[in-house]
Amino acid sequence: MFSRDGYDIGRLVWVVCDVCRIGSINKISIDPDLHRQGLGRRLMRRALADGPGYTWQTTHQSPQARNFFPALEEEWGVALPEFGGVCEHLASPTGYRTPSPGRRPRPVLERGV
Questions:
Q1: What confidence tens digit (pLDDT) does each residue in 42-53 have?
Q2: How confident is the model at residue 6 (pLDDT cuts 50, 70, 90)?
Q3: Which of 21, 31, 44, 57 has the highest CB neighbour number within 10 Å of its CB?
């Protein structure tokens, strides 16, 4: 997530498995100066739109996330438990290494999220 000035103010990493109908929130972070402005909720709405009706989970939760995710669960009626395990399709293959940091993808503006 980028500000109108192009500053990186938030990030959400998620994956979905359409075979198992599972979604996983792997990372969410918002600039601390911009907390409690609805930005995390906007990112989460975007992720959940990729798996309507799916079972969702999160990875390890920070102290802030331990307040954030239960609030979303109550507000939206969707379970977001901490790490329920991954399906065989989302597990990293043996020998897989994450790509080295390089050029970041160009930001995409999505409206209505």
A1: 889 988 998 888
A2: confident
A3: 44
